[in-house]
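tool=predict chain=A
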Amino acid sequence: MAIKIETQKTEIPVVIGKLEFTVDASDESSLRLRDAHKNLLDEIEAMKAKDSNYEADFEQTKEVLKKSYDIILGDGAFDKLYEQTASIHLLSKYFMDLANSLTEELSHFGVDQSQKAKLKKYMKKS
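tool=predict ok
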């Protein structure tokens, strides 16, 4: 008798309004997203550190959001979203919701604590 293990997709569907996207949750993509996330956090910190005016802040915030959405949801995602919802404030809110939801979804791809303990125990026996 053969052992059958169902495979899982490494894609997470995302729907924002009427737009549908797919987030690649493969190992390579996850590493790329983490690097991009760190770079974006550095950009945001740099924005906070300098004095600027509303227009400059607005444009810089829009650019950071564009990079963020395009990295996570694919090139052109921000433009489609901005066409659907022409508000940086709302797109920022959507992005926070997306980031929180993705963090939760990506945790399902990992090994939980009980599995880690079993794996560690097994590896010691080998």
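The helical segments are 27-49, 54-73, 77-84, 88-107, 113-125. Strands lie at 11-16, 19-24.
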